[in-house]
């Protein structure tokens, strides 16, 4: 069995909503960045509310509201739909009763891109592909005009 297939099987065990046909691995695993940083366009820092990590524009707490503040500071606004809108870049914030758990960004295809903690990045077809794992439910979708994306993607350093 190929290494990639072994990794896909491991990810499908962690996230039962993933099926071999609805996602693909897009990077090797790394602890160099996490989902929040990935969605913000940063691949050389781990963004977290804990002291000692970048957490721009937001209260240092694990709440969904604090994650929303991070993306609001990067030019995103709350919206009600995860549907593709060509002029908008979209992100989704997942959470559970304890707070935010994950973030994903929408690709031009309408699929989503996720950095799975210290594991790989994946492209998945639907937001619901990850809700059966540890990530809870999608709690907030946000958007910003694509013309703003190039200016704000590499958010302010803390």
In a few lines, what is going on in this structure?
This protein is α+β, with helices and mostly antiparallel strands and 158 residues long. Helices cover 22% and strands 25% of the residues.
List keywords for this structure.
158 residues, alpha+beta, 7-stranded antiparallel beta sheet, 22% helix
CATH topology: endopeptidase fold (from Nostoc punctiforme)
Question: From the helix content, strand content and strand pairing, which structural class follows?
Answer: alpha+beta
Can you tell me the number of structural domains?
Answer: 1
**What's the mean pLDDT score?**
92
Cα(first) to Cα(last) distance is 44 Å
Top-tier CATH class = Alpha Beta
Q: What level of helicity do the residues show?
A: 10-25%
Q: Could you give a short account of the major beta sheet? A: 7 strands, antiparallel
How many whole angstroms does the radius of gyration measure?
15 Å
What does this structure look like?
By secondary structure, this protein is of the alpha+beta class. The protein has a single domain (3-152), classed as endopeptidase fold (from Nostoc punctiforme) (Alpha-Beta Complex), CATH 3.90.1720. The chain contains 4 helices and 7 strands, in the order αβααββββββα. Strands 1-6-5-4-3-7-2 form a 7-stranded antiparallel beta sheet. β3 (88-96) and β4 form a beta hairpin. The protein is globular. The protein starts with a helix and ends in a 6-residue tail after the last helix. The mean pLDDT is 92.
């Amino acid at each position: 069995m190929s290494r990639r297939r072994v990794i896909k099987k491991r990810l499908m065990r962690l996230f039962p909503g993933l099926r071999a046909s609805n996602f693909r691995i897009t990077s090797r695993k790394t602890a160099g960045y996490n989902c929040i940083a990935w969605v913000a366009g940063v691949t050389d820092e781990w963004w977290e509310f804990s002291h000692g990590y970048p957490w721009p524009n937001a209260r240092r707490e694990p709440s969904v509201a604090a994650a929303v503040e991070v993306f609001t500071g990067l030019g995103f606004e709350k919206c009600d739909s995860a549907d593709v809108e060509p002029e908008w870049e979209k992100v989704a914030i997942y959470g559970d009763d304890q707070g935010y758990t994950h973030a994903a960004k929408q690709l031009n295809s309408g699929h989503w891109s996720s950095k799975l903690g210290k594991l790989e990045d994946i492209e998945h077809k639907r937001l619901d592909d990850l809700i059966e794992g540890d990530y809870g439910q999608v709690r907030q979708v946000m958007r910003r005009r694509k013309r703003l994306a190039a200016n704000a993607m590499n958010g302010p350093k803390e």
